[in-house]
Design goal:
- The chain has 478 residues and is an alpha+beta fold.
- It folds into two domains: 98 residues, OB fold (Dihydrolipoamide Acetyltransferase, E2P) (Beta Barrel), CATH 2.40.50.140; 308 residues, BirA Bifunctional Protein, domain 2.
- Helices cover 31% and strands 22% of the residues.
- The chain contains 14 helices and 17 strands.
- It has an eight-stranded mixed sheet with strand order 7-11-12-17-16-15-14-13, sandwiched between helices. The chain has a five-stranded mixed barrel with strand order 1-2-3-5-4. The chain has a three-stranded antiparallel sheet with strand order 8-10-9, with no helix packed on it.
- Helix 6 packs antiparallel against helix 8.
- The longest helix is centred in the N-terminal third of the chain and has 23 residues.
- The protein is globular, with a radius of gyration of 27 Å.
- 36% of the residues are buried.
- The mean pLDDT is 96.
- The protein binds 4-amino-1,4-dioxobutan-2-aminium adenosine-5'-monophosphate (4AD) and magnesium ion.
- 4-amino-1,4-dioxobutan-2-aminium adenosine-5'-monophosphate binds next to strand 12, strand 16, strand 17 and helix 14.
């Protein structure tokens, strides 16, 4: 008989009084009779009722939380109150036993910190299974959004010779013997002897290569892993994270902002309609968690309302100038409550400022655009004022920056000048400059941090809890 997913068995349309086979893991076993079985397909467990008589003593002992089972029998209307249907077990096979003394995932509340140390097993908990199912759905709806719009999915390289953000936060890729490295005539590491014959790193962004493809395919997007060696141990930073980077020929900054807003709201509304039980579970989870926090730290809106609010309301769009003025005149700035005070035009905004704008001032997602040239990357298009560039960041409640993007500098002379000013290696990026030599057009794009989106949707406070195996400073286990 074919194995049926629990999700399917619990759906209204499934016929009762037929025999089914299910395979999954025991969540709980009570009264030597009721097994709550989960196979990952649904947040709900299937109640499976075993006939005590039919089991021998040693089998009974082996049915504990975590045991993997094969169960067979008719699906019947449940006698009990907790569920509509249950499986009346005629046949039970133990596929894999699970030592109850040692199994780290017991049917009780475990802290997220504890579970991070058991990242290989935490997917067996209801919370992580819900988060990871939503993560999977989100990535599906992201592809769906772009595919339906006619964007092409492209895979940009992970190993690269160029620093796309010019921020120097890269992980080196090398096969050189680090105990006995080759040295050149100037006493430097001789990268000519390395695998690629030059210095290479893990990419921080697929943007530059995506630009090349947009200038041929029109509208493209990447969705891949990116790596940053920034030593920031925060709840929003990973050393390895996934980024979605659309890049579009003939788009200016406004078109770019329109697309980004439409993209985020559409993906969120798909998840709202399609991940109902997982979202409801996480909504309740957050409510309970809030009760244990002081009033000032509690979420002002529950999770579902917050997502709906973002879907239903336009994002606010303001220039850096406007944001600067609001922040400069804000209470926390005047009362010196900000850690970084705002008193000079041109300073970068910190997460405390971003969150003030989103959570206190506008109470909405905010897009800030036209940033000072000196705090942004070399590839952004210079405005006529000479002081600002056509950058845009999207800021979200509870998250801060979720998207960073810009219109790109398509004018060769201005780009070359900027690269010299910022000491960007133009020899390495000769091909990027070529794009401005041969049929250059205005174009734009942005990058959305996938884990930050998952955080927003699931309400998980720490980014380490929305990726299966997080990589952070001093941590690359599993
Ligand atoms: O603002 P960033 O650095 O922009 C770029 O990389 C551009 N090349 C994107 C583009 O225009 N194609 O990063 C984009 C987003 C951020 O807004 C944030 O959501 C996320 O990537 N991000 C991180 N997420 C997790 N951990 C980190 N260390 C992150 N750094 C950036
Ligand atoms: Mg950014």
């Amino acid at each position: 008989m074919k194995v049926v997913k629990i999700k399917h068995l619990l759906s209204e349309s499934t016929k009762t009084n037929f025999n089914y086979v299910v395979k999954g893991w025991v969540k709980t076993f009570r009264a030597n009779r009721f097994i709550a079985l989960n196979d990952g397909s649904s947040i709900e467990n299937l109640q499976c009722v075993v006939d005590y008589e039919s089991l021998n003593e040693s089998e009974l002992k082996l049915i504990t939380t975590g045991t993997a089972l094969h169960l067979e029998g008719p699906l019947v209307e449940s006698q009990g109150s907790g569920q509509k249907v249950e499986l009346k077990v005629n046949k039970l096979d133990i596929i894999g036993d699970c030592n109850p003394e040692k199994y780290p995932i017991q049917p009780k509340k475990h802290s997220l910190e504890y579970l991070r140390e058991k990242a290989h097993l935490r997917i067996r908990t209801t919370t992580f299974a819900a988060v990871m199912r939503i993560r999977s759905s989100l990535s599906f709806y992201i592809h769906k959004f772009f595919q339906e719009k006619g964007f092409y999915y492209i895979n940009t390289p992970i190993i690269t010779g160029s620093d796309a953000e010019g921020a120097g936060e890269m992980f080196r890729v090398s096969t050189l013997d680090h105990k006995n490295p080759p040295i050149d005539e100037n006493g430097n590491l001789d990268f000519k002897k390395d695998f690629f014959g030059k210095e290479t790193n893990l990419t921080v962004s697929g943007q530059l290569e995506a630009e090349a493809y947009a200038l041929g395919l029109g509208e493209v997007y990447t969705f891949g892993p990116t790596f940053r060696a920034e030593n920031s141990n925060t709840k929003r930073h990973l050393a390895e994270f996934w980024m979605i980077e659309p890049e579009m020929a003939f788009y200016d900054l406004n078109d770019n902002m329109d697309l980004a807003e439409k993209f985020i709201t559409q993906v969120l509304s798909e998840v709202l309609s399609n991940c109902v039980s997982d979202l409801e579970f996480l909504n309740d989870r957050q409510k309970k968690e809030d009760l244990s926090k002081p009033l000032s730290e509690r979420n002002q809106m529950n999770l579902l309302d917050k997502i709906k609010f973002v879907v239903e309301n336009n994002f606010i769009r303001i220039t850096y100038n406007e944001a600067y003025r609001i922040l400069k005149d804000s209470k926390p700035n005047k009362k010196k409550k900000f850690k970084f005070l705002i008193n000079q035009w041109g300073t970068d905004l910190q997460s405390e400022h971003e969150r003030y704008l989103v959570e206190k001032h506008f109470k909405r997602p905010v897009i800030i655009f036209n940033y000072p040239i000196n705090i942004k990357a070399f590839y952004m298009r210079r405005n006529d004022d000479g002081k600002t560039v056509r950058a845009m960041d999207i800021l979200f409640p509870g998250i801060g920056e979720i998207v960073g993007g810009s219109q790109r500098e398509e004018r060769l002379d201005i780009l070359e000048k900027r690269m010299i000013e910022m000491q960007i290696n133009s020899e390495e990026l000769w091909w990027y400059l070529d794009l401005r030599r041969y049929g250059s057009v205005p174009h734009s794009g942005f990058g959305l941090g996938f884990e930050r989106l998952v955080q927003f949707v699931t309400g998980m406070n720490n980014i380490r809890d929305v990726i299966p195996f997080p990589r952070t400073p001093q941590n690359a286990s599993f």
